[in-house]
Design brief:
This protein is of the alpha+beta class and about 525 residues long. It folds into two domains: about 140 residues, Purple acid phosphatase-like, N-terminal (Immunoglobulin-like, Sandwich), CATH 2.60.40; about 350 residues, 4-Layer Sandwich (Purple Acid Phosphatase, chain A, domain 2). It has seven helices and 23 strands. The strands form four sheets. The chain has an eight-stranded mixed beta sheet, covered by helices on one side. Strands 11-10-9-20-21-22-23 form a seven-stranded mixed beta sheet. α2 links the parallel β9 and β10. α3 packs parallel to α5. The protein binds fe (iii) ion and calcium ion. The site of calcium ion has 8 residues, from loops.
């Protein structure tokens, strides 16, 4: 791709062309009105090249986009920035050589947010590729490419994007991301586990080498992941829609309950630190700036009348995990009685209300739930006579899920597509109307994408079709990769793109299987 591998050339280009004149931040972002930009800050030398973490863009609107970078001349040692604010200039252009600049401005990178910047550019044209670049002093970033969303409500012939999850750095390299950067996409979706919080080493070694807790720990960990050239390349080539799962904070956390739910001391503070550093590293809007241990991540992003993405957060508001076990003879339709407590929730009442309103008001051809953990029920007991549910997926929160399923049944919506990460495995499942009748006429379709690297290499297994336990299942595979989705008003197509190994940085990608959903008919069919 033109921008990802060309840092020396673009640096030269931008040093020659200039950016803003030294004093001249001509446009100051609204977020900074009232704050003084130090007049000479941008001219002062930092400790080294500041754009080591690359650049990113995200959350496209028909007339706008978020541009992101974070200054980190010494990325793996807390960043290496002075404890003062630094002005960062930005510009956005119609061409990859940044000749036709349409907007420019400056923002402050503050120590409070790890010297990250989140520029919300407005006034752009819809459905258009743009290129952007940052500058501090005499240093310029690589040039990134991004794209605005189509005009609101307009019909579209086609849209292509890919979704990923779970990129554990110690389990392998990112050949999947290298290949994804080369795809013809309009945007990417990340469904969580962008980082892992544990220490340890494997194919690569985590920094710091232990579990992360402090702000500096989390910053160093994100910086390490973002130092990967393949990850940088995907960010540089497409805007991303981001959400998280558990490992951005701690494995299996639920709301304010840590993994070890018996000891909650300090967890709210840890969650606040983790949420802050997540925000610092993602191309998110001001609406997502955290307040203490809260960060509103659920939001809608639309692509004309073709697709509405409801981006979910099933971690922040969930109640405690379902009980791991109970006497078999007490189970009700596979559930421990305690799991059926109607007060248990995975999304929280407010988010569910927002989701159902979003679905009810949508005029889109496809309604997409961009979601962390498996949504459709999956019977975990191989005995055909025994159903068994209840874990930290939606299966652990059956009453909450049933409210969504009942809504889909009552409204007759057939066009709900659930995109899911978490499992490090690929599955295609029809979404049944309840957890009792898995083979009933589906009310939606779920595509579960495998991990980018998490789990590492393993003996590959693939299964087509369901079985007596899970008749609503169409596909299983345990390779690594991403899911490429091509959608038209009439047809949704998901291509399961897999790489042969994550033990190498570079590997080919191939389509293992494709599934389609026809408009007006929930459920997947093999293409
Ligand atoms: Fe994961
Ligand atoms: Ca069973």
């Amino acid at each position: 791709m033109e921008n990802a591998k060309s840092r020396p050339a673009t640096r030269h280009l931008f040093s020659r062309r200039g950016f803003l004149t030294g004093l001249g931040a001509s446009v100051v972002q609204a977020s900074l009105i009232g704050q003084a930009i130090p007049r000479f800050a941008s001219a002062q030398r930092l400790g080294g090249y500041p754009f080591t973490l690359g650049i990113a863009s995200g959350d496209p609107l028909p007339d706008g986009i978020v541009l992101w970078t974070r200054l980190a001349p010494d990325p793996l040692n807390g960043g290496g920035m002075p404890s003062r604010s630094v002005a960062v200039e930005w510009q956005i252009a119609l061409d990859s050589n940044m000749q036709q600049v349409v907007q420019r401005g400056a923002v402050l990178a503050t120590p409070a947010l790890g010297h990250s910047v989140h520029v919300e550019v407005n006034g752009l044209e819809a459905s258009r590729w743009y290129w952007y670049q940052f500058k501090v002093g005499s240093d310029v970033s690589q040039i990134g490419r991004t794209r605005t969303a189509p005009p609101e409500g307009t019909s579209l012939d086609q849209l292509r994007f890919a979704f990923i999850s779970c990129q554990n750095y110690v389990n392998g390299y990112y050949p999947a991301l290298q290949r994804m950067a080369e795809e013809d996409l309009e945007f990417c979706v990340h469904l969580g586990d962008y980082i892992y919080e544990s220490g340890g080493s494997g194919v690569r070694a985590h920094l710091p080498a232990r579990e992360i807790f402090s702000i500096d720990d989390y910053r160093t960990r994100y910086a390490q992941y973002k130092s990967d050239p393949a990850l940088q390349a995907v960010h540089a080539n497409f805007p991303w829609l981001m959400t998280w799962d558990d490992h951005e904070v701690e494995n299996d956390y639920a709301g304010f309950l840590p993994e070890n739910a018996a000891d909650t001391s300090g967890f709210a503070d840890r969650r606040a630190r983790a949420y802050q550093v997540y925000y610092e590293h993602m191309p998110l809007r001001q609406a997502q700036i955290p307040t203490g241990p809260y960060l509103q991540l659920y939001r809608n992003i639309s692509f004309g009348s073709l697709a509405q993405f409801s981006i979910m957060d099933t971690r922040q508001y969930r109640s405690a995990r379902a009980p791991a076990s109970c006497p078999a003879n007490t189970r009700i339709n596979g559930y421990c009685p305690a799991a059926l407590d109607p007060s248990r929730t995975i999304e929280g009442d407010t988010q569910r209300e927002w989701l159902l309103n979003s679905l009810a008001n949508s005029k889109a051809n496809w309604n997409v739930m961009a979601n962390q953990v498996p949504f459709a029920p999956a019977d975990g007991n191989p005995d055909p006579a025994i159903q068994q549910y209840g874990n930290e997926k939606w299966d652990g929160y059956p009453v909450d899920r049933q409210k969504v399923l009942d809504f889909l049944s009552a409204t007759g919506l057939k066009n709900t597509i659930v995109l899911t990460g978490d499992l490090h495995l690929s599955y295609v499942r029809d979404v049944p109307p309840d957890y009792v009748n898995l083979d009933a006429t589906p009310v939606g379709t779920e595509f579960i994408g495998t991990s980018v690297s998490s789990g590492g290499d393993r003996a590959i297994a693939t299964t087509f079709g369901g079985d007596v336990n899970n008749p609503h299942q169409h596909f299983y595979n345990n390779g690594h990769g991403y899911v490429l989705c091509t959608i038209t008003p009439q047809l949704w197509t998901s291509d399961f793109r897999v790489v042969p190994s994550v033990l190498v940085e570079d590997a080919p990608v191939s389509t293992l299987a494709s599934f389609v959903v026809e408009q007006g008919r929930a459920g997947a069919q093999r293409a």
